[in-house]
Amino acid sequence: MWHAGVVDPVWTALALALTGAGGFWTVYAFRNRGVAAALRGAGLTLLPLAALMTGTLELVVDLGVDIGDWAVGLVFSPLVWIGIVLAGTSVVLWGSGTVLQRRAGAAEPKQVKSTVAKPLPQAKRPAADNDLADIEDILKRHGIS
User: Which domain holds residue 47?
Assistant: First the structure.
């Protein structure tokens, strides 16, 4: 990584190795697949150098190492497995309580009073009367009686 003009040789070597490998792949792509593939390869080839200069190369490697350490600790730690068993037990207990509550609720039906007013049924006129009423409304709007 770049720190006030000081270059870390390990990260520089990694970035140059990745860029060199990308350069070989770009030349291969140009010869076998054409200009478009070579341009895409060149774009990818420059990423390790850009990551070195911005400090993200070290960040990505450190992130990968940290995720690997976490995964190893997760798999090989007895304390973690006890926590997983406790979490599973809590889910089973929660589900059992829910099932028992539903069964108890089904045995004793609850009566709920409805507070919503039901609309009153309106008197229905025959279809012919509805058509005539519509025609009368249209005539009244146009001033024709």
Answer: 2-62
Task: Give me the number of domains the chain comprises.
Answer: 1
The percentage of residues in the chain with a pLDDT greater than 70, rounded to a whole number, is: 78
- Which pTM value belongs to this model? 0.44
The pLDDT-based confidence of 96 (bands split at 50, 70, 90) is very high
145 within domain boundaries: no
Q: Is residue 31 assigned to a domain? A: yes
d(CA 21, CA 45): 8
Q: For the CA atoms of 89, 94, 99, 104, what is the dihedral angle to 10 degrees? A: 130
Per-residue pLDDT reduced to its tens digit, 122-143: 555 555 567 788 888 888 888 8
Instruction: Give the 3-state secondary structure of 24-60.
Output: HHHHHHHHHHCHHHHHHHHHHHCHHHHHHHHCHHHHH
